[in-house]
Write the structure tokens for this entry.
Amino acid sequence: MVEMDFRVGQLLDHIDSLGIADNTVVIFASDNGPEFRPPYKGTAGPWSGTYHTAMEGSLRVPFMIRWPNHVPPGTTSNEIVHVTDIFSTIASITKSSLPDDRPFDGIDQTPLFLNPQEAKSPREGFLFYIKHELRAIKWRDWKLHFIWEPQVNKSSGKLESPYLFNTTRDPKEETDILAFNTWVAQPMLKMRAEFERSLKNDPAPPDPLKAV
């Protein structure tokens, strides 16, 4: 971490020395939660889980953006931003046009980044897959698990009845409250239906590497 902090600092200093900071967007983020293998096993603080699980500690990661005179410094936000949103957002910031022959999962988060204290993310949630399996759906402060694997390689398989957690009140996802909040499943299952419909209407192109 010390080495990483030092090297990132060097990059930022170099950008500043070139006088291009105001026209350079720097994003520093993690692609997943902490490592699960000892002796490198990490922690996600108040949240449970490591990467390769659908737990909050796997999905919720640090994301920092620097764009002087555009993104206000020293501010924080708890809004949802998905990794696919980065592509759409950078395209918007650079005023680049996107191809119109395919759908894009990403959402433009520029308004949120420019005004994080007042703006809301246009993203309310996302589906989480591991390979071809839908493990969970995140919607606002709720998480619906279809396969329960709180630790890697310790899966109980597909659940007969999904587990529902409120990740604000229960950040470690310890108490299933689906029976008391069945209404939450409706917007989540709608998200799944819309995504599956999108896959059917716009299937992914063949991957030549899979034939190797």
